[in-house]
Amino acid sequence: MPGDTDIEGLALPFIIGMAVGLALGRTALDSILLGVVVGLACFGLLAWGRQQLIP
Predict the structure, then answer these.
(1) Number of structural domains in the chain
(2) Under 8 Å CB-to-CB from 49, ≥6 apart: which residues?
(3) For residue 4, how many C-alpha atoms fall within 13 Å in the half-sphere facing its CB?
(4) Run of H or E including 29
(5) Quick check: is 5 in a domain?
(6) Is 2 contained in some domain?
(7) pTM of whole model > 0.90?
(8) What are the tens digits of pLDDT across the range 5-51?
(9) What is the dihedral of CA 26, 32, 37, 41, to 10 degrees?
(10) In terms of pLDDT, which residue wins out, 42 or 3?
């Protein structure tokens, strides 16, 4: 079970990743569903990068 600090640390990558994904989905891809998929991919990359920088 992840601790409180792990969950709090993933909040910012989730917000940024989903914001970027939804923005790209609505403007460039003309699909909110694709934006959600792109946002989740961005979240995964940002979360992975955060875990590498701050163990």
Answers:
(1) 1
(2) 13
(3) 0
(4) none
(5) no
(6) no
(7) no
(8) 888 889 999 999 999 999 999 999 999 999 999 999 999 999 999 98
(9) 30
(10) 42
